[in-house]
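Every protein is a chain of amino acids, and every chain bends into a shape of its own. Below is the pair of lines this work produces for a single protein:
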Amino acid sequence: QYNKAIDLCNHIIAKNPADIDIYRVKISCLVNLKRFDEAIKIAEDSNEFTFERAYCLYRKNKLDEVIELCESFSEPRPEKVINLEAQAYYKLQQYTQATACYERLVDLSSDPDYDLLANIYATHVSSGCGQSALSSHPLDESSVGDSFELMYNIACAYISTGNYSKAEETLEQAKAMCVRVLEEDGASGSIIEEECAAINLQKTFVDIICHRASEQSLQECRAILRNHKKDNELYAVAANNLAVLRGDTDLPDSLRRLRNTISAASEDKLTKSQLMEIRYNRCLLLLHLKKVDECMKNLEELDKIYGPNPRSILIRACTFALTKDYTQSDHFVNENISLIDSSEDPSGLCEKLILVKAQTLIDRKQFKEAFEIMSSVSSLRQTAAGVSAMYNLQTIMSKTNSVDTNSATDFLLKCAKEITDTDDTTDAQIHTLRSIAHEFQSKHLYSEAAQVWRYLLQCASAIDSSDRLTATAQLAVCLSHCDVEESGRIAVSLPQVDAEGVNAEELEKSEIPLLSKRVNTSNSHSHSQDAGTTTEMPTEASKKERAEEMRRARLQRRKAKCREEYLKKLEEAGKYDPNKPVKPDPERWVPLKHRSYNKRGRRNRNKFVGGQGSGDGAAKDMLKLDAYARANASDSASKKPKGTVVESSSAKNKGRKKR
């Protein structure tokens, strides 16, 4: 139809070449046919078609020329020109300029539409100013209409501010809205799945950030990689997220996928930050696979593109540590630490380099030096992983008499006190306190555990009522071992449990279902007058036996399932009747020529020859070597009752020959 319209336009232009409108119609037809060069050639002949020319250049990805043409318009510029300029800036990833253009469009519009608001949120988030969008344009589910794209961008703004719980909630609302709107429009299931793919992928990103990697997140990434191979941007992000979710498993497959994602088509779709993340993650995979030379080569190429940056420095330091080049590693780490200003280190590179150096010291059995350098970082003393690492180092040193035996306990108490003294206690610090208390309890250090639970209860603003109740109960349990009176006073504040109709003695003697061993009801094992029974905890050996039994059970179930599927397949093919089962040939494992029914003559019909080296000769040799069988044979012969030998008179003449 557009070709016919162009022919008609040419006919009209031939009769009336001064008609501007017919030229505009022809340019529109050429644009719809993607014949942009012809449209640009017509637009260059008149200043009336500057916008059409800019739009054609935008479609040809000549963005600098687009911006130059848009700026050539005199003020006040039309809204469509400002919108095209904003799109060009966004495609050039100049998000600050794009945001300014969209904000200007909002000022010009008394009631901005949802598409404009979605674009504003996108530019704010891309420039790292998600909070600015949430503050200047506050929106919720009731004020976005049916625009699930806008709802998705709002969720991205929450992610950029670190409010992951709100982001997850908003993503769920965006997905529900997307499904509802598309179903009302009569869209097919495949289209709905395609539209929801980006939302699902963003949910996996939230799971990664919150350290909640699950099987569902893995399945979402695999589904996108399987069903959206043509969407370069979606495919690349899914491959990267899948590699992060897998961690150190399936490394070769993760590396292969990341290698295939970076192409000319994907580079046009991905942002600079996304492309940078994927490239450096590929270097990390090479490092995990111990392909050091290839990793260093890629780092040198990335340094030419992005210049020296915290991630490049950290990967290079890990490379030196992996190759056990400790001299080079120490020199590189110390040199970079000295160049970093701790007050201007948002990436935390200094702390990460210190951890690399501590790891090299541990590899060299220099535990004291490793502990000293780790304890110099205050933030490490407030994380569960950091405290655990330093606590283990103290334990190792106490076993070798390098430090006092109580130093590990004193260190944990010191860390707990430091966390309590901080102004704003975070969830991670609360988790660290809880871990320290549980560690003391596992070592039967109930007095120290009670002290840590008291520290936790002092953080009133950081814990909810449920956590406070749990901490109070744990405090009462710990004090029951060291201060019974205080434990009783604290227990009074706990909510009472309705124990009416419960027999305490029967409850004590009942079996605990979580344990693999039965309760021992023998009185000889009682350690107190009140407790009638004790329960033996499963040992490490019993756990391994239980795991082995479960493995065998799973294997048997798998074999049974495969057998059923195989028989069903044979039954469908008409090769098996369950009502008339065929007895299998007992010699089916023997070669055909050695089977008894294929032997010629009667002499060797039932003689089993078997495979090479397994005939009668081999069987006789085996019997000669079977000492146990010979011993049994001699025993049975000795135990056999011996009778009296009677000599026959006829036997004397048996050997003579009659004449």
